[in-house]
Amino acid sequence: MAMSPPPPRRAPSSRPTPPLPDDVMREILLRLPADDPACLVRAAAGCISWRGMVSDPSFAPAYRLRRGAPPMLGFLYDDRPAGEHWISHFLPTATSPPLAARDRQHRHALDSRHGLALFYTPRSHAHFLVCDLVTGEHWEIRADPKCYKIIWSNLLQEMHSLRENEQISCNASVLCAKDGCDHRDCHGGPFLVALVGSDVEGDTYMNHAAVYSSATREWSDVTSVEQENVIDGTGHSAVVGNTVYAPCVEDDSVVVYNTREKKLSVIAAPLEVEDQEQQPYLDLMGLEDGMLLFASVVKPRLYLWTMEAGPRGAAGWARRRVIELGPLLPLPVLEDKSDVSAVGFAEGVCVIFLKTRVGLYTMELSSGKGKKVHRGYINKVMPYMSFYTGAWGRLPASNVASRAVVDATTI
């Protein structure tokens, strides 16, 4: 019996696939990853409709609102060869502004927070420089003479002149001063620069603090208090609202400076260890879930403590974690007695930086995933967090007939 021929194949439909409804497409665009800004730029250049969605004034606030924190675009770190001047470097970890990803001669990076970076500028007519690395805006700040005892403490005079060595002895922080800000879009807003340092007057140790306001362009009066806690000028600070937390040297206490009330106080880290001899020095990293985060490394483990300040300066436990470093670091690093320590923390995205003799590693606290990001030996990392989509300037639209262009702007 003869077999019947197969039915003819149906010709493909020439009708185009119907486009997604605008509200559905907008939801898709809102979910594009913030740490890959190129996605939004490519989407905006895809067609007139998408470009309209991305450039709509309501899109940027909604895009930022979907995220708990801005993405980490990169991090700042310093290099100072023996006898040479400071050089500040920026290493991108995502698509970053061209203005950010460059070296800065005669700049000493001190802090990075709320989309701003703070530099000490010893060879400039200004003492400090605050920069928005996305927009390129910058503000020069001269220190009031009343702040000199904070910036150049006589505790370290025996090391040589700090001014000649391009060093400062205080802990410096930059923070957004916009009331009610969620710190997802701090561009162009007012800011504060807080200095917290220690000095000695006769046989008495003193802590001093002062704050600069970009709104008034003035420094506050210096707040001073007699205390035994010497502030670590090279450590990380943390900020909760208008309050700055600065670590101390050789102990685990933290000096608290309320920039609004102009008050200084001290809280002690709530340590509870079985063997005090095995307890390492704790480094203040920043904030996690609104609580101060401390870290230390006792190989092969990373120990994390979080605490929050209670009434009248009392400190209480929040939680404690221990993370195995074996899956992340090379075996020779774990076996060697050389230094392994936590040197930075990206708030909001919960990424911690670990310094080793073979390079710098990052670890995501949520997943435990890590990777090597730099070959050098870096003592302090300052992550830069901000929203950014302007890597390519003006891009031609895909609709050639319209001859339109799309502006890649800061989201």
Task: Please describe what this structure looks like.
- It comes from Triticum aestivum.
- InterPro entries: F-box-like_dom_sf.
- Residues 1-21 are annotated as: Disordered.
- This is F-box domain-containing protein.
- The protein is mainly β and 411 residues long.
- The chain has six helices and 27 strands.
- The protein has helices at 22-30, 38-44, 48-55, 59-65, 148-151, 331-335; strands at residues 72-79, 87-92, 104-105, 108-113, 116-120, 128-131, 138-141, 171-176, 191-201, 204-213, 218-219, 223-226, 238-240, 243-247, 253-258, 263-268, 283-288, 291-298, 301-309, 315-324, 341-346, 351-356, 359-364, 370-374, 382-385, 394-396, 405-407.
- The strands form seven sheets. Strands 8, 9, 10, 11 and 12 form a five-stranded antiparallel β-sheet that branches. The chain has a four-stranded antiparallel β-sheet with strand order 3-2-1-25, with no helix packed on it. A four-stranded antiparallel β-sheet has the order 4-5-6-7, with no helix packed on it.
- Helix 1 (22-30) crosses helix 3 (48-55).
- The model is unreliable at 391-409 (pLDDT under 50).
Secondary structure elements and pairings:
Blueprint: H1 22-30, H2 38-44, H3 48-55, H4 59-65, E1 72-79, E2 87-92, E3 104-105, E4 108-113, E5 116-120, E6 128-131, E7 138-141, H5 148-151, E8 171-176, E9 191-201, E10 204-213, E11 218-219, E12 223-226, E13 238-240, E14 243-247, E15 253-258, E16 263-268, E17 283-288, E18 291-298, E19 301-309, E20 315-324, H6 331-335, E21 341-346, E22 351-356, E23 359-364, E24 370-374, E25 382-385, E26 394-396, E27 405-407
Antiparallel strand pairs: 1-2, 1-25, 2-3, 4-5, 5-6, 6-7, 8-9, 9-10, 10-11, 10-12, 13-14, 14-15, 15-16, 17-18, 18-19, 19-20, 21-22, 22-23, 23-24, 26-27
Protein name: F-box domain-containing protein
InterPro entries: F-box-like_dom_sf (IPR036047)
Region (Disordered): 1-21
